[in-house]
Amino acid sequence: MPAHPDSAPAGVIHDIGYRHYDGDRLGRAAITRALFWHSLRGAYGLGRSARSKILPMSLFAIMCIPAFIIAVIANVGALNLSDLPLPYERYVITTQGVLTIFLAAQAPQSVSRDLRFKTVPLYFSRPLERVDYIGAKFAAMSAAMFILIGVPLLIMYIGALLAEFSVVTHSREVAVALLGAAVFAIVLSGIGLLIASMTPRRGFGVAAIITVLALSYGAVTSLQGILRYAQNDPTAAGWLGLFSPVTLVDGLQMWVFDTTSSAVAPPPGTVGGIGFVLVTFVLIGACWGLLNLRYRKVSI
Q1: How far apart are CA 221 and CA 271, in angstroms?
Q2: Which of 25, 103, 109, 150 has the fewest CB atoms within 10 Å, counting from its CB?
Q3: Would you state the torsion angle of the CA atoms of residues 205, 206, 209, 210, taken in this order, to the nearest 10 degrees?
Q4: Hey, where are the domains in the chain?
Q5: What is the pLDDT of residue 124?
Q6: Can you give the pTM of this predicted structure?
Q7: How do residues 124-157 score in pLDDT, each as one tens digit?
Q8: Can you give the pLDDT at residue 223?
């Protein structure tokens, strides 16, 4: 016969010594900010092992060294320079290989590891929502890329001021270059995170990001050179710039901010400039939308 309820063993709650939390319980905004700072620090290996800091810090140093050399050259009196050897807005194109490697290494670190170790459902536990997670990761990666581009530009700017170049001119030029750097950071981060989110394997993400950015830039610039110089068709060459993220943002930067183009062929006229601006915003929106669609499939 079944045991009488009174004879069943009583449950016991054991106090195993965990400290009780009596502080404020913060909501979505605070969690999102914490995830942003954690992801931004992680992009440079801060708060992680020494081994994790080697690559991002090395790439940061590599990005800054040319800017420091340019600043030193500008201050060599024997050269009698009246301006910097390299315009601010062309620094991204010159160093885009380093940017590609940094993005390929850190975008998978930001999202692929969460997918691989199945920690994403823990983030999506309330009150954090999917859009908060995506926004924090997108903002952190964009900020990391902006720092990587912006610090060398500021080094060049300080060098220009020490060389007693025009303060007004260089202040305007570096401000415009920093705006362009922000657009570069957002576009490249969106593409990198979208590709990295497709696979939990970090190595696959690294290879895919390098392949997409390097091949698109190499193919577009090669075809632009053929069309512009061999076929004498600069208009068609200019439109080809839409098919590489680097040349796309460079064309936007040139048309909107009236800067020097670093691409083989600039946007073809006013219509081309408007097209470059529209495609840039469509690309950013597409990356955001596809990231949200991707994370809808990650179950809680």
Answers
A1: 21
A2: 25
A3: -150
A4: 27-285
A5: 75
A6: 0.89
A7: 776 888 899 999 999 999 999 999 999 999 999 9
A8: 94
| C-alpha to C-alpha distance for 282 and 284, rounded to whole angstroms | 5
Q: Locate tokens 């400039």: which residue?
A: 273
The span from the CA of 163 to the CA of 139, in Å, is 35
What digits encode the pLDDT tens for the residues 12-46? 766 677 777 677 777 888 889 999 999 999 999 99
d(CA 74, CA 80): 8
CA distance 155 to 207: 31
Which of 220, 207, 221 lies closest to 104, judged by CA?
Answer: 207
Q: Which residues, given as ranges, of the chain have pLDDT below 70?
A: 1-11, 13-15, 21, 78, 126, 299-300
How many angstroms separate the CA atoms of 291 and 220, rounded?
26
Q: At what angle do helices 269-296 and 130-162 cross, to 10 degrees?
A: 140
> Are the C-beta atoms of residues 94 and 70 closer than 8 Å to each other?
no
Contacts of 214 (CB under 8 A, 6+ apart): 97, 100
In sequence order, what are the residues at sequence separation of 6 or more whose Cβ sits closer than 8 angstroms to the Cβ of residue 289?
Answer: none
- Note whether 259 and 86 are within 8 A (CB): no
